[in-house]
From TrEMBL:
SUPFAM superfamilies: N-terminal domain of the delta subunit of the F1F0-ATP synthase. The lineage of its organism: Bacteria, Pseudomonadati, Bacteroidota, Flavobacteriia, Flavobacteriales. Keywords: ATP synthesis, Cell membrane, CF(1), Hydrogen ion transport, Ion transport, Membrane, Transport. It is found in: Cell membrane; Membrane. HAMAP family: ATP_synth_delta_bact. Belongs to the ATPase delta chain family. The keyword Cell division does not apply. It comes from the Bacteria. F(1)F(0) ATP synthase produces ATP from ADP in the presence of a proton or sodium gradient. F-type ATPases consist of two structural domains, F(1) containing the extramembraneous catalytic core and F(0) containing the membrane proton channel, linked together by a central stalk and a peripheral stalk. During catalysis, ATP synthesis in the catalytic domain of F(1) is coupled via a rotary mechanism of the central stalk subunits to proton translocation. This protein is part of the stalk that links CF(0) to CF(1). It either transmits conformational changes from CF(0) to CF(1) or is implicated in proton conduction. It is a peripheral membrane protein. The gene is atpH. This is ATP synthase subunit delta. Coiled coil: none annotated.
Length: 178
């Protein structure tokens, strides 16, 4: 838990600096890139978490991977290395993205479907999210064939499960109770 609190503090500090420098959007792009790259590369994540790999080597790798990063992002990496907190980089990136979206009055709506969303459905989801929360949102589509059909919509703390698997599970529970 303390790691996530620390990550939020670092994210708030970077957001404050980036906002002052009018580079918050560029830093947000960097943070999305960092989050996605770490999620896709198990080796990079292992390297960041490893106490065996020297900090100078970690810095060299990160600056090579994220060579077009904003100065605020590079300074964050330097600060995390200096404070021996580089393992928090992914958490800081995630926290920064959330804080930036809150600042903009936007959010991410995660829609889990059995098949990819069409543009028409994406538009309907965005309208529904706007109606429910009063905020704009970006749609992130996760494909999970296990839900069989329908969808699961998650926006912040709100989750709406309209999947076929969920409905079948409810029916199963009703029949076993009677």
């Amino acid at each position: 838990m303390s790691g996530s609190r620390a990550a939020i503090r670092y994210a708030k500090a970077v957001l404050s600096i980036a906002t002052d420098q009018k580079s918050a959007e560029a830093v947000n792009s960097d943070m999305k890139l960092i989050k996605n790259t770490i999620a896709e590369s198990g080796e990079l994540n292992q390297m960041l978490q490893s106490p065996v790999v020297r900090s100078t080597d970690k810095k060299e790798v990160l600056l090579a991977v994220f060579k077009n990063a904003n100065d605020a992002t590079t300074n964050l990496i330097d600060t995390l290395i200096a404070n021996k907190r580089l393992a928090l980089l992914n958490d800081v990136a995630i926290s920064y993205i959330q804080l930036y979206d809150e600042l903009r009055g936007s959010q991410v709506a995660t829609v889990t479907t059995a098949v990819p969303l069409t543009e028409e459905l994406k538009t309907k989801v965005l309208a529904k999210v706007k109606e429910l929360t009063g905020k704009d949102a970006e749609v992130e589509n996760i494909i999970d064939e296990n839900i069989l059909g329908g969808f699961i919509l998650r926006v912040g703390d709100i989750q709406y499960n309209a999947s076929i698997a969920n409905k079948l599970d409810k029916l199963k529970r009703e029949f076993t109770l009677n």
